[in-house]
Design goal:
By secondary structure, the chain is of the alpha/beta class. The protein folds into two domains: 64 residues; 203 residues, 3-Layer(aba) Sandwich (Rossmann fold). It contains twelve helices and nine strands. It catalyses: L-glutaminyl-[peptide chain release factor] + S-adenosyl-L-methionine = N(5)-methyl-L-glutaminyl-[peptide chain release factor] + S-adenosyl-L-homocysteine + H(+). Keywords: Methyltransferase, S-adenosyl-L-methionine, Transferase.
């Protein structure tokens, strides 16, 4: 294995042998990551010799990917809503489907300024940071039970230059203040389903970010019941949901006094987001 072309062919073949779904793409992305080359550069220089250090690092990464360790955990980066985020084994890898949640919250926030946002179960912080990057003079609080997840979120906010208040808390236990918007992508996979997920997810992503308990709805019930105490009048609660949870979560919201409850679909036509607005009676002193 001497040239860039040899390396890429090795990577493709090895990942195919390991039954990696996107073997060709992942082999290229890891080569790009290791050597810092672009596709256009590669097509002109594919027969040039690759350095021994790059070969060694590339082989190690290919073997790790062959064990189904997620690509993003190997490169320590993931892209979400056009922004680059640091990720590791302590956070859920941002998914494109989640961008539907960001789009909907931004749509509901049009022409509003100085909004206060809270992101419950923030993980890497990608949802909150994407929202703050696209809202005028908004402020945000990110909440997670995992200290290690919050370390990742803090790193992302620092690297992106977006100021956020991060709180380690079991749901709302240590939350204070009132908010215009509460957004959440909580654990929502049924416990019994997790073992049937692809290895990249069930073996390498944090179980606490996946497991929604027996029916997958525990966190939706808890957050919906408590969120009203922390939302301002006409405040918005917005969830990412699993494809089969739209009816149940929208019912929870209606039962807890939310109006204008709607279920939105992702690009595949599957239920992905539920939003609602809460109206509070004015308190006269």
């Amino acid at each position: 294995m001497k040239t860039y072309k040899d390396a890429l062919e090795y990577g493709k073949q090895r990942l195919l042998e390991c039954e990696i779904e996107d073997a060709n793409l992942d082999a290229w992305l890891l080569l790009e990551y290791v050597s810092g080359i672009s596709r256009s550069w590669y097509f002109v220089h594919e027969d040039e010799e690759i350095s021994e250090n790059d070969i060694e690092e590339y082989q190690i990464l290919i073997e790790q990917r062959g064990k189904h360790i997620p690509l993003q955990q190997l490169t320590k980066e993931a892209y979400f809503y056009g922004m680059k985020f640091f990720v590791n084994e302590n956070v859920l890898i941002p998914r494109q489907d989640t961008e539907v949640l960001v789009e909907q919250v931004l749509s509901l926030s049009k022409e509003k300024e100085n909004l206060k946002l809270l992101d419950m179960c923030t993980g890497s912080g990608c949802i909150l940071l994407a929202l703050l990057a696209n809202l005028k003079q908004a402020s945000g609080t990110g909440v997670d039970l995992s200290e290690k997840a919050l370390e990742v979120a803090q790193r992302n906010s620092k690297e992106l230059g977006i100021e956020v208040s991060w709180v380690q808390s079991d749901l709302f236990d240590k939350v204070s203040g009132s908010y215009d918007i509460i957004v959440s992508n909580p654990p929502y996979i049924e416990t019994s389903v997790i073992e049937g997920l692809m290895d990249e997810v069930k073996l390498y992503e944090p179980r606490m970010a996946l497991d929604g308990t027996e029916d997958g709805l525990f966190f939706y019930r808890e957050i919906t019941m408590q969120a009203g105490k922390y939302l301002k009048n006409n405040g918005i609660l917005a969830f990412e949901i699993g494809y089969n949870q739209g009816k149940a979560v929208s019912e929870f919201m209606k039962e807890n006094g939310y109006k204008e409850v709607q279920v939105l679909q992702d690009l595949a036509g599957l239920d992905r987001v539920v939003t609602g607005r809460i109206e509070k009676e004015e308190q006269h002193v």
